[in-house]
């Protein structure tokens, strides 16, 4: 199982950004350096100059230039008016990853139902190590903006989907999380291990979990697990402004959608 | 501008899959081989055995094994019960590509409106070379299934979004397309250059384009351009079963959404 040693946001450093490949020649070879160059980009950045790429990667400018030209040839970077940007070939490759393709295809109609019923912001998330990774996000004109970007990460313990994913991931992982300092994204993030343990037990009993401004100020959410033959594969959530009616009123909606999606996925046979 | 020399489906071979990087040592180095390994996967494949990876890439098994282990270390592959599958780190990287991040964020509320108003399947697409690449797709329980996968490609001339993208891409590109044999995905695909030229002129006049079972039997669609300061950046479409009422009845809906999205994107200032 992949583990992530980053406790907080890790937008530009994926789970395997730094550790050397077990059989490869460490960080040194051209594949490692190429991936490091791609990971230098942050969300929303259209292009970076060679100087900035060199600074972020710690690679000499001449190396960055040679690598970037090769990545352009491979379709993973593209030339920008100034410098280089990520290329459409990288987007195409990313869309082939099964987490996205399979789960999203099955989940999308249920996410649409939730959006249509509530007009709030809807998330679909999976666990990777000690993080939540957002697989999909639906938002209309009026739904609240959230720190959850598709493909982005947040700590498991600071989000509704994360606590739900953790609650069903087995005692071993829960013990591992509780043994470490709990990350704090806001003043409301749960950082007391005893309180978190109680909350995880309550989530397993009720089938829903809450985030009460624990990931971002002003933002609450209610989340529910997607289970395939008893194994958790994802979580759904509805996010609302914290000053509105409490998200508990939306618990039956998210629970209904997660039960329906769980049923559809279980019918398709055990995954793996 | 990147060009794609594949006339038909090109799911596993992106625009730059084969050509050697201009400055790199051709197909030979470990970065090229690593990308070739990632591109060996096809949509929906959870895992591939070493033997199959070796067959598809033309690389010796020992090389594939060493590369795969390194890609696991980088988070771009993951070990499967048998063989290797694409890793979540690749999904994360792909989501950083601006085509996805910026356009999709702005477009999503308008796609949601179209879905809610029609309950049909909605697409957002961009042009890459002579192909359409699908940036997003919304589908409920009842919407028709389409050959358009997010991150997948279809020829410009066989789809509603593609013809719309082509119609506004300038006479130079139109001439280039018309000078080549036109791809045929179904018996209805337009393969006569004169007929296609007339249709592109009509699309520019009307602001909407149609696909009448030209990409897949039984599937029709109506599409409209997203223009930022007169420059085309994307196209929206609504897909319906061909046996239903003609998609013309949905032309005002898709036109309305594309005009609204164009306005929002133009207000945000010239992109690049």
UniProtKB/TrEMBL annotation, chains A, B:
What one GO molecular function would you report for this record? DNA-binding transcription factor activity
Assigned keywords, A-Z: DNA-binding, Transcription, Transcription regulation
The UniProt record lists the keyword Zinc-finger: no
Q: Which Pfam families match?
A: HTH_IclR (PF09339), IclR_C (PF01614)
Instruction: Report domain HTH iclR-type positions.
Output: 28-88
Question: Per the record's keyword annotation, is Glycoprotein included, yes or no?
Answer: no
- Return the annotated region ranges for Disordered: 1-29
Can you give the residue ranges of the IclR-ED domain?
A: 89-267
UniProt xrefs under Gene3D superfamilies:
3.30.450.40, Winged helix-like DNA-binding domain superfamily/Winged helix DNA-binding domain
Q: Which GO BP terms sit in this record?
A: negative regulation of DNA-templated transcription
> Could you tell me which PANTHER family the record lists for this protein?
HELIX-TURN-HELIX TRANSCRIPTIONAL REGULATOR, ICLR FAMILY, HTH-TYPE TRANSCRIPTIONAL REPRESSOR ALLR
Identification of the protein by name: Transcriptional regulator, IclR family
């Amino acid at each position: 199982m992949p583990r992530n040693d980053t406790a907080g946001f890790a937008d530009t450093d994926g789970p395997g950004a730094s550790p050397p490949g077990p059989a490869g020649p460490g960080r040194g070879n051209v594949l490692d350096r190429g991936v490091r160059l791609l990971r230098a980009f942050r969300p929303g950045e259209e292009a970076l100059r060679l100087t900035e790429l060199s600074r972020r990667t710690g690679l000499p400018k001449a190396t960055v230039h040679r690598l970037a030209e090769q990545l352009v040839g491979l379709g993973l970077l593209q030339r920008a008016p100034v410098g280089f940007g990520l290329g459409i070939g990288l987007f195409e490759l990313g869309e082939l990853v099964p987490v996205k393709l399979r789960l999203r295809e099955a989940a999308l109609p249920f996410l649409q139902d939730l959006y249509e019923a509530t007009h709030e912001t809807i998330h679909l998330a999976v666990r990777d190590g000690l993080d939540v990774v957002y697989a999909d996000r639906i938002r209309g004109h009026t739904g609240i903006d959230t720190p959850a970007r598709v493909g982005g990460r947040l700590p498991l313990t600071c989000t509704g989907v994360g606590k739900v994913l953790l609650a069903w991931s087995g005692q071993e992982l829960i013990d591992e999380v509780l043994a470490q300092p709990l990350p704090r994204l806001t003043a409301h993030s749960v950082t007391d291990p005893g309180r978190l343990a109680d909350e995880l037990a309550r989530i397993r009993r009720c089938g829903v979990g809450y985030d009460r401004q624990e990931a971002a100020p002003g933002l609450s959410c209610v989340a529910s697990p997607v289970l395939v033959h008893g194994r958790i594969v994802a979580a759904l959530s509805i996010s609302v402004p914290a000053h509105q009616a409490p998200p508990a009123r939306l618990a039956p909606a998210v629970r209904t959608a997660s039960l329906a999606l769980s049923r559809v996925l279980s019918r398709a046979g055990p995954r793996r």
